[in-house]
Specification:
3 domains, about 60% helix, Rossmann fold, about 325 residues, 5-stranded parallel sheet, Methyltransferase, Methionine Synthase (B12-binding Domains), Chain A, domain 1, globular, 3-stranded antiparallel sheet, 15 helices
């Protein structure tokens, strides 16, 4: 008996957004879903496998237009060959990347110590060295993210002062601002703007989001905290941003934030997607659903959404 999956389940299993799945169906005939009596799309397990293979192939550099008409068996062979080539390339690069997880742990410890000693110059030096000695994903996931998270936790527990967190934030902000040049991100990479809505002053989450996006190859512009909707939208239009990412932390029941989100959705170009995360974002879930923003629960889910958005046709 065939097991059918609604589009959101298919999206979750394949790592594609519902928008991309529908676009690939309509434009390229990638799959042909079954229709229920109420005309809803449902997908078989074969459809899910095929969409997963297509996603893996596009992430390896293939154009969806070139591979959409291949049979599933042909896709399996192509993905296997491309992934084998990618592993060989990664293995070759890894011979030049001597540092291990132990090294990144030492870099993190040095950064935390520098922040706790209010030594901005040393913290900047440690991060600058890390650009050379660590790969981008390791630098972000093993150093930048845990550095800011550990200082935030220490501040809430009272073991460091707000000055320590502010110093680290200032240094990381400068560091993130230089990521594009440091990592040689291609000029044709998709653009993302990262900020917080007007009235949202906590920027650590936004900084982490900007750092992770830059590490994943996005042209990243961090606009700082507490920016009005019209300014965010103006920057998005000028930069032709594919994505605007917002971090919401506190307060969680601010009607001003709700109004700003609604205005931003109205002002943004139609091709720009709005992605919202942070500890307080779930409190605004109803308005996020209303304006069709993408809600992410953590940095990992943010990266999954960005990978899916990268595959969307650029209107």
């Amino acid at each position: 008996m065939t097991e059918w999956h609604p589009i959101r389940v298919a999206a979750r299993r394949t790592g594609l957004s519902p928008h991309v799945i529908r676009a690939w169906e309509k434009r390229y005939g990638a799959v042909t879903p079954h229709r229920t009596e109420t005309n809803r799309r449902v997908y078989s397990q074969d459809d899910v496998e095929r969409l997963t293979l297509l996603r893996r192939s596009t992430l390896l550099g293939r154009s969806i237009g070139q591979i959409a008409k291949l049979s599933t068996e042909e896709l399996r062979r192509l993905v296997a060959e491309d992934e084998a080539a990618q592993r060989a390339a990664d293995s070759s690069e890894s011979l030049e990347m001597v540092p291990t997880t132990g090294h990144s742990a030492r870099v993190l410890a040095a950064c935390v110590e520098a922040a706790k000693e209010l030594d901005a110059a040393r913290l900047q030096h440690e991060l600058d060295d890390a650009i050379v000695t660590l790969s981008r994903p390791v630098l972000m996931s093993d150093v930048i993210v845990p550095l800011m998270q550990s200082l935030g936790t220490a501040w809430r527990e009272g073991s460091v002062r707000v000055a320590h967190e502010h110093l680290a934030t200032a240094v990381v902000r400068s560091f993130v601002g230089g990521l594009n040049g440091a990592f040689h991100i291609p000029t044709n990479a998709p653009q993302i703007l990262v900020t917080t809505p007007s009235g949202q002053l906590h920027e650590i989450g936004a900084l982490l989001a900007a750092a992770m996006a830059a590490a994943d190859g996005w042209r990243t512009t961090y606009l700082g905290p507490s920016l009005p909707a019209d300014e965010i939208a103006g920057a998005a239009r000028q930069s032709e941003a594919r994505v605007v990412a917002l971090s919401i932390v506190y307060p969680t029941d601010d009607p001003h934030v709700r109004n700003e989100l609604i205005k931003l959705a109205q002002f943004l170009p139609s091709k720009t997607r709005l992605l919202v995360g942070g500890r307080g974002a779930s409190s605004y879930r109803s308005v996020l659903d209303e304006i069709r923003a993408i809600h992410v629960s953590d940095l990992e889910s943010m990266m999954r959404e960005l990978q899916a958005l990268r595959l969307e046709p650029n209107a």
